[in-house]
Amino acid sequence: MKTKLFKKTPANLFILLLALFTFCSMGIGRVNAQGMSLYFTDSNANPENSLELNPGQQVSLDLYLTTGTTNIDGYDMTIKAPNDLSIKAVSEDSGAQQFNDPLSGNANIDIAGNSLRLARITTDTQNGANIQGNLKLATITFMAGNSPASSSEAIILTGPVPNNSPCSPNLAPPCKFLRPNNRVPAVVSQSNTGSFEVVSSPALPYTIVSPNDTFLNFSLPLADMSPRVYRKTNPVTVCVFDHTYSIAKASQEFPDCRDALAEQTHNTIYVPGSITNDGTATFNMPSPYFDLGQMEKDGKTPIASGAYTIAVKPQGYLAYILTATISAQTLNTLPTPASPLIAGDINGDNSIDIMDYNILDTCGFGAINPQPVTPDCQAADLDNDDLVDGIDFNIWDRGIQSALNNP
Amino acid sequence: MSKRSIILILILAGVTFLLLYIALSQGGKSGKGQNANRILPKPSLSQAQTTLYLSPNPLTVANATASALVMINTNTNAISGAQIELSYNPAKLTDVAVYPGKFFSNAVILLNRIDRQNGRIFYALVLPHGAAPKKGTGVLAAVRFRPLLTNGDKTQIRFMPKTLIIAPNIGQSLLLSSMGATVIGGGQPSAATGATTSAY
């Protein structure tokens, strides 16, 4: 026997009509934004232009973002519901999960403001710029009020104040950033039957912008002049500690910082460097890598201006840890360390010791005929010559002696 | 059992295997970035079974050259090397030197550094590449020094955090515990006191 899920009776139909706000990109001078839209659907993925609700009734709608053929790296929007239509719940969906970094700390409902911010970017340096399609961002549950207001109200979708910095195609993330650049009302009006009606909003443009964040430039003199750090694929990890951390504390905390960042991948910067005759690698993070240097405390919260303890660690080297004043939303250049960074930290725990030697030994150092390095042993190949051999041991040995001289 | 039940069971089994496959494959991926540098597996707590201690303890010395032995007991571990970091009071112990013990035959000394100003000993020795890892108890090293202690005066030699034990294909130290020694001036010298370097 079939069950009728929804039974409409005159008594039940008090109504709130909900939702569709569709925003289409008109791409004002920006071809990247063309063809994008946001829209709500029911649970069967049918776009909803209107919906009737009883007083006190809940409804869940899926929010989709269609990018067309444009690759995007993120989105940031705030949905504010009108009076008598509250946002009760939200769960992010598969489309959102493609963006690994929840800028607002996952989707959170501001109960007082009756609003919801959805904001994510991807920091995947390999695939981040390739997100496109029909993305199911979230399922949002609305609840109609018990006493519908008679005046018209609006659902409002806003984004941060846009930054119109130019951003060319095919850049590494998170250069391109999707956000609505205008307040886009969706009109709610009372119908003849006492219901509310939400009509679709006019199509308004999006602007693809570069986030107005904080950046670091730095130069590192490196002992042994290993070519390793100059490869684009070798990471330079940057950790920003609360300024109350001492340098010694930051050094102790570095492994945790590294692990946290490895999960976030947010402050792990993959940058090409250039080498000078004195063995100094300069990381000036030129476009398209510039945005990868955006600094966020703990990989989450944009940092404010102030003094911070900063650790900059090329793979294989002990970290350069310093206290520096950072000005938010601008380009900062760190002072260059007075002495070369010390190589030999193979296991990445910011210490050079026998544990690193153990990896050298495991990876074939000491063998009569060293074999080409396997992927697991690349970190032990300190001189990046595809062999783990006596040269790598010498770098490690010099490193451990230097580390003892400069505790 | 009806056909429908059998089909349902088969579908459920298929879904179960699919989910299991996804879970296992994602588990492998999750650690990829995080463990980029950790190419050796970490030991579990129960794997770390090696203990280090100084002997004798307490060590009673006269004002002549004395030695404290760094003893090792690997229990179930088969190890390939050790790094020792010891601290001492340089105002109380002087002319400090470290020698390898007989636990590792043909040991390669990777590190032998004594910071006489701050009272730190850094010493590391390993088996030659390819040698079979060693298990058991014995003298890992000996610390020789000349005490500057009055009768009944005490000072301590302590193990520090960079004391590490390694084994092939293990990514973390196998050191379970360590115990230093108290050096007491005057009185009848302890057994290891004054031993020659060949006796370790």
Entry keywords:
heterodimer, A: 407 residues, mainly beta, five-stranded antiparallel beta sheet, 4 helices, 26 strands, 12% helix, disordered N terminus, B: 200 residues, seven-stranded mixed beta sheet, five-stranded mixed beta sheet, 1 helix
Structural class of chain B: mainly beta
Strand content of chain A: 25-35%
Biggest interface, chains and residue tallies: A-B, 31 and 32 residues
What's the end-to-end separation of chain B, in Å?
76 Å
Helices of chain A, by number, come to: 4
Q: Give unreliable regions of chain A as ranges.
A: 1-35, 150-155, 158-212, 227-233, 262-279, 284-294
Q: Uncertain segments of chain B of ≥5 residues (pLDDT<50)?
A: 23-39
**DSSP E strands of chain A, number:** 26
SSE blueprint:
The complex is a heterodimer of chains A (407) and B (200).
Chain A: E1 23-24, E2 37-41, E3 58-66, E4 74-80, E5 85-92, H1 94-97, E6 101-102, E7 108-110, E8 115-121, E9 134-144, E10 153-158, E11 178-180, E12 184-190, E13 196-198, E14 206-208, E15 215-221, E16 236-241, H2 247-264, E17 268-269, E18 274-275, E19 280-283, E20 296-297, E21 301-302, E22 306-314, E23 316-317, E24 320-326, E25 331-333, E26 343-345, H3 354-362, H4 390-405
Parallel strand pairs in A: 15-25
Antiparallel strand pairs in A: 1-2, 2-3, 3-9, 4-8, 4-10, 5-9, 6-8, 7-8, 10-12, 11-14, 12-13, 15-19, 16-17, 16-22, 18-19, 20-21, 22-24, 23-26
Chain B: H1 3-30, E1 50-55, E2 59-61, E3 66-73, E4 81-87, E5 93-100, E6 108-115, E7 120-126, E8 137-147, E9 154-159, E10 164-166, E11 175-179, E12 181-185
Parallel strand pairs in B: 1-11, 2-12
Antiparallel strand pairs in B: 1-3, 3-8, 4-7, 4-9, 4-10, 5-8, 6-7, 9-12
Describe this structure in words.
The complex is a heterodimer of chains A (407) and B (200). Mean pLDDT of chain A is 62; it is low at 1-35, 150-155, 158-212, 227-233, 262-279 and 284-294. Chain A contains four helices and 26 strands. Chain A has helices at 94-97, 247-264, 354-362, 390-405, and strands at residues 23-24, 37-41, 58-66, 74-80, 85-92, 101-102, 108-110, 115-121, 134-144, 153-158, 178-180, 184-190, 196-198, 206-208, 215-221, 236-241, 268-269, 274-275, 280-283, 296-297, 301-302, 306-314, 316-317, 320-326, 331-333, 343-345. With 407 residues, chain A is mostly beta strands. The longest helix of chain A is centred in the middle third of the chain and has 18 residues, at 247-264. In chain A, the strands form seven sheets. In chain A, strands 4, 6, 7, 8, 10, 12 and 13 form a seven-stranded antiparallel beta sheet that branches. Chain B has 200 residues and is mainly beta. Helix content of chain B is 14%, strand content 38%. Chain B is built from one helix and twelve strands. In chain B, the strands form two sheets. In chain B, strands 2, 4, 6, 7, 9, 10 and 12 form a seven-stranded mixed beta sheet that branches. Chain B has a five-stranded mixed beta sheet with strand order 5-8-3-1-11, with no helix packed on it. Chain B is elongated, with a radius of gyration of 25 Å. The chains are: A mainly beta (407), B mainly beta (200). The A-B interface holds A 235, 259, 262-263, 265, 268, 315, 346-348, 351, 353-355, 357-359, 361-363, 365-367, 376-377, 379-380, 397, 400-401, 404 and B 33-40, 80-83, 110-111, 113, 115, 122, 124, 126, 128-130, 162, 164, 166-173.
